[in-house]
TrEMBL record, chains A, B:
Listed EC numbers: 1.1.2.4
Signal peptide, first to last residue: none
Protein name: D-lactate dehydrogenase (cytochrome)
PROSITE patterns: FAD_PCMH
Length: 461, 461
């Protein structure tokens, strides 16, 4: 491993390193790109960046890191929202975005095996002609390795689950540079301890995922999208829970609250929508007769919960337009609050607590003088709030987040449904998990005794 | 904790023990009941049995066990098939069958919280009036704690997943006697390491589960059961995979091979069935129109795969009769082989390998002079073979199992889809997991340094 540029890692390198040489990029202009994350949060300048192409290069990097005591931060597409990828000291960035080959697609097994830098849209482009899709959709075009590391989920989790449910097996490099295979590429196994799931969500702190075998699902024959407005959040939530109780094949079940719908109207310069809480729904039916019956059943349910209007999109074009609006929500809010940055909270609660959680967030926003919009994956109880702020009210937005998390934990929820702990939510970890945090620390120390893998993320040892 | 009977645990007990006293039953007649498991496999006589009623009594037992160096074996309903519950030395049995309260059923949250000794039929009786069910069905009326410990699954896994997917959170007593809560009772969380899933499938070797919050699912409105005969196993498997590819709401997808169907005919003393491979299928539809369309689509698929006959059961009575036959398979085989014991193998393979796995098992049975019947959870690739044997051909049946597992592992499968490793499959662990076994051992040593929790099960430390 050779390096060039401003920093010098030292002469121990050449002898300690027993793998293929990997160039360390230390050009300041490059390193600066790694100091800011997608949320605008800033970290230190890392000591360098390497771009391993495969597991051997990752393992060689880890062995060298261990020999030289160099902490490592792995990253894929860089779409973390919680500071997972920010350097705090002298870390070396292991950028896996170029380790992005699709190794296998097996239509009969409904699986694909990929390197960690493969993104979800890249994978879906490769599986579409088999009539299959990778269903975890966090919005961003994240890498699959990064999605596994944060246990990402998103809009389709209500039907297909998140990364725990969709990664069958992985290959990983451990802190000692050894390579292990975790899980098996079968639908179920009761063999040995579940290490595959231990690494999912561990944010690169227990090992570096270098390969994943994921589940693929059939692309549905018959897909309808619905938008329904309700007088209150509580009515929308009750209707959503009743749909779930009717075992309807709902694959997306998204809530946008009244301020969000108002922002969308303003963004489009039109009064498209009732400015009341709305559900955006996808229904995946097995046939046209099933689709008709399922849409009728949803109509019956939403009417019983005093729905104000009901829009069904059946063609691809109509469906695309309906969801385009939902996806525009963040841009609509940005347009309403020029110059602001945005905090996106990520709490998740049991269904029975959703309406109260939204109410708490709205009331708290009022108290703190903040403009709070809610965009929740209601089918999972995952209540995102989006709050614009500037340097002038940064403390208020932080207080908002803290109070919302405390409330969420007090009713049995979680501080983070899908974004992960990273740097920013470590402070809530013991409140959520109690003495289990000591067990997490013991496992971290066992797997990474020198604290070289993404140190200080998820927890402190 | 006091004890009576033949054994004496020693005087250290009274002082070391800081919880409520728990009587240790050491009556030989009682202990003998714990020396044989459901498969007829024999272990040592344990040193005694305790019956904790709740987490405090479990924690007190563990603290006492630690102070006295007493190894523990936890059990629920005692339905393990792999020797998980057999004593190998001087273990104390912690029988949790009396820790069986249903603590909470929350219809809005689609969850129930139970003590570990609650059985699945007990839970389903408590949730049915809410229109909800606990869907994991391993056949036996197992306890939920035991099912979590072995990551049980069963006939409905193709639609609902096994215990990993259906346990949201747990409470556990660790080897040091501390009590932790793992996971959160929400649909998704990315907070901290996934310790909930680390304990699921660990067979009581990493901690003792004292409480579980599980997912409930709506009882389907419209359920049809189908039985379809095929000329070959390959045709049946191809039809099954095509049904899965069509995203039909199949909730059971079971294969019985020709010898199994012949045994059922003999059992009933009638020629009910074509003596060729058959699929037993449940379809859960959201409405009657959906059910009709889905049944038609399945008819189309099975015809394309040369189905010989097609039986649809629509009423509850018809459905019950159809599945009764499938459930009678084991009794039918027993009746055909009086005086025999039975080995049930539990390998699982990728879909593309199912037909070859069945073929391998059948051929291998012929070579070894064994009568092999296959009853597979085909929707999960889980291929059970059922093989009668006596003392005269015990070696042959062991060779059958070993060869089948080696074949399975060589094509990417697992030695155990749902029964667990226990005692009997430890020998395959490294062949399946390679260097990851060292990581499992490291975790076991970290969590249970004195090797007091179900020692020698899953792995040796």
């Amino acid at each position: 491993m050779e390096e060039h540029g401003a920093h010098d890692i030292g002469s121990a390198m050449t002898t300690a390193f027993d793998g293929p040489p990997l160039e360390i990029d230390t050009r300041p202009g490059i390193l600066d790109q790694y100091t800011i994350d997608e949320t605008g949060r800033a970290g230190q300048r890392p000591r360098g960046v390497v771009y391993p192409a495969d597991v051997d290069e990752v393992a060689a990097t880890v062995r060298w890191a261990r020999a030289t005591g160099t902490p490592l931060i792995c990253r894929g597409a860089g779409t973390s929202l919680e500071g997972h990828l920010l350097a705090q000291g002298n870390e070396l960035i292991v950028d896996l975005s170029q380790s992005n080959s699709i190794l296998d697609v097996s239509p009969t097994d409904f699986t694909a095996t990929v390197q960690p830098g493969v993104t979800r849209t890249q994978l879906n482009a490769a599986t579409v002609e088999s009539g299959l899709q990778f269903t975890v959709d966090p919005g961003a075009d994240a890498s699959l390795g990064g999605m596994a590391a944060t246990n990402a989920s998103g809009t389709t989790t209500v039907r297909y689950g998140g990364m725990h449910a969709n990664v069958l097996a992985s290959q990983a490099v451990l802190a000692d540079g050894s390579v292990v295979r975790l899980g098996r590429a079968v639908r179920k196994s009761s063999s040995g301890y579940d290490l595959k799931d231990l690494l999912i969500g561990s944010a690169g702190t227990l090992g570096i995922i270098t390969e994943l075998t994921v589940r693929l699902h059939p692309i549905p024959e018959c897909l309808r999208s619905l938008r329904v407005s309700f007088p209150t959040v509580a009515a929308a939530v009750d209707a959503a829970v009743e749909m779930l109780g009717a075992a309807l094949p709902v694959s997306r079940l998204e809530l946008v609250d009244a301020p969000g719908m108002a922002a969308l109207n303003a963004f489009h310069g039109a009064d498209h929508y009732a400015e009341t809480p709305a559900l955006f729904i996808d229904v995946e039916s097995s046939s046209e007769p099933a689709a008709i019956a399922e849409e009728q059943e949803i109509q019956r349910i939403v009417k019983a919960h005093k729905a104000i209007d009901f829009t069904a999109a059946r063609s691809h074009t109509e469906r695309h337009a309906l969801w385009e609006d939902r996806h525009n929500l963040f841009f609509a809010l940005k347009a309403r609050h020029p110059g602001s940055r945005f905090m996106v909270t990520d709490t998740a609660v049991p269904y029975s607590q959703i309406a109260a959680a939204v109410d708490t967030a709205t009331r708290l926003g009022d108290e703190l003088g903040l403009t709070v919009s809610v965009a929740g994956h209601i089918g999972d109880g995952n209540v995102h709030t989006i709050v614009p702020y500037t340097d002038l009210n940064h403390d208020a937005v932080q207080q908002f987040s803290d109070t919302l998390v405390h409330h969420t934990l007090s009713v049995g929820g979680t501080a983070t449904g899908e974004h992960g702990i990273g740097l920013t939510k470590k402070k809530y970890l013991r409140e959520e998990h109690g003495a289990a945090v000591d067990l997490m620390i013991a496992i971290k120390r066992t797997l990474d005794p020198d604290n070289l893998l993404n140190p200080g993320k998820v927890l402190d040892t």
